[in-house]
Amino acid sequence: MARHPTTRMRFHGVAAYEILTRDGLRILCDPFLDQNPGAATKSTEFDHVDLVVVSHAAFDHLGDTDKIAQKYGCPVVCGGEVKAWLMDRGIPASQIRATTWGIRVKVAGIEIQPLECHHWSQIRLKDNSFISGVPMAFIVYADDNLRFYHYGDTAIFSDLKLQAELYKPNVGCIGIANPQEILHLNPMPGEMLTGEMSPYEGVLATQWLGLETVLPCHYIKLDGDKDVADYMEHHRQARARGEAIADPYLLRAGDWIEFDGDGKVVRPAKAA
């Protein structure tokens, strides 16, 4: 297979990302696809999948990991609770690399650095019991000079600065919204006023992580999303004050973004 000149990444809505390395490896991060009204591709429609990385067991992040692992025979990197859920669905333990904060792994030729995040992770097994585990953010070392930070539904916390110092992510997705189209799938009383991070907190997280390129996310429909608009307004204010902050790219579900060998964006031609 000829080496591609760019690393390509496609957003599928919420926090689902597809990465194609320059060597043609396909990595799926938090592959919420089949119930995701924004997903450009459903779980059975890839020609191959080489690796799945899952941050935690929420339905809109865990997504179709079991179906993908079964269809493509690819390994999965995840926490212990996701491993138990996958095995409960017939995925062999030999196909699953369980890890947690700090335990860096290399699977399918790709290095993954799990990171602390502040969230929760719980899921029900077939026998109706609940299991819980430790959610994680992670960095995917997709290619030389591309260190992709996936936030894993974290709330803001100050050790994001330490993560920046230790691991130097240069591209990252930051959750700053709520996917309105799927909130009905998890009915509860009252309403959610913010996601795990408010738009303002998302701007601070972007800065604390030292990113060069930021992909605001956790939405399905981009146009008209108030949280995305609020994030961009806080971002503009930070830049107007002369503060260092990443270039933002607002992707619609199905959009691709491409990076050169230095980890710089080559497409789209312009940031938001």
Automatic annotation (TrEMBL):
It comes from the Bacteria. InterPro entries: Metallo-B-lactamas, RibonucZ/Hydroxyglut_hydro, UPF0173_UPF0282_UlaG_hydrolase. SUPFAM superfamilies: Metallo-hydrolase/oxidoreductase. This is Metallo-beta-lactamase domain-containing protein. Residues 26-219 form the Metallo-beta-lactamase domain. It comes from Mesorhizobium metallidurans STM 2683.
